[in-house]
Design brief:
CATH class: Alpha Beta
CATH architecture: Alpha-Beta Complex
CATH topology: Maf protein
Helix content: 25-40%
Strand order of the largest sheet: 2-1-3-4-5-6
Number of helices: 5
């Protein structure tokens, strides 16, 4: 199956390619369709946004489209930045500043109150058959007191996955095994290829 990775985020494209390396898919991405402008993300949930994007890109390219919508949910901030993680502080604010903003908002919170999770919903739409598959998953953790690590992207440097490391300190293989995106993608593709083993955790 030829599948379009329906995201303009180059980091996500790289991760999705790595996570799906064990599946019988021919992957392409939006760089092959430069004339297609992204849709407005007007959904009120991750699932709604993921479906919106998958339907939009499959319609405009004629290909099965795999979309992703994800965010960081901090319990002490009532789940913020959540669905608006990419737009937190404004589209033009670099992630380094978004990270500092989250840390500032949590400045007075004790470590035990810094629980958080990454949430991701992945959706695949096949325009030829009208079939839709979707899977949502989370990765639980806490918000570190300061950024650590040079790997990953987005909020990874402040998302602590164990007592010692943030997501940005994990190798790609370690991250994909536990991440919200890794779980979501493997769950989604297992619906399509239930008997296929990827050889991954």
């Amino acid at each position: 199956m030829k599948v379009l990775i329906a995201t303009a985020n180059a980091h996500k494209v790289e991760e999705i390619r790595e996570i799906l390396a064990g599946f019988p898919l021919e992957l392409c991405d939006l760089r092959d369709f430069p004339a297609v402008e992204p849709p407005d993300e007007t959904g009120l949930t991750y699932a709604e946004n993921a479906l919106l994007k998958a339907v939009f890109y499959s319609k405009h390219t004629g290909l099965p489209a795999l979309s992703d919508d994800s965010g960081l949910e901090v319990d002490a901030l009532d789940g913020a930045p959540g669905l608006y993680s990419a737009r937190f502080g404004g589209h033009d604010m670099p992630h380094s500043q978004k990270i500092l903003r989250v840390l500032e908002l949590l400045d007075q919170q004790p470590e035990k109150a810094r629980t958080a999770r990454f949430r991701c919903c992945c959706t695949l739409v096949n325009p030829d058959t009208g079939q839709t598959w979707s899977e949502e998953a989370t990765c639980e953790g806490t918000i570190a007191l300061r950024p650590n690590g040079m790997l990953g992207f987005g909020y990874d440097p402040i998302f602590q996955v164990d007592s010692l490391r943030t997501m940005a300190e994990l190798s790609a293989e370690e991250k994909h095994a536990i991440s919200h995106r890794g779980k979501s993608l493997r769950g989604l593709l297992s619906q399509i290829y239930p008997h296929l083993s990827t050889g991954r955790t």
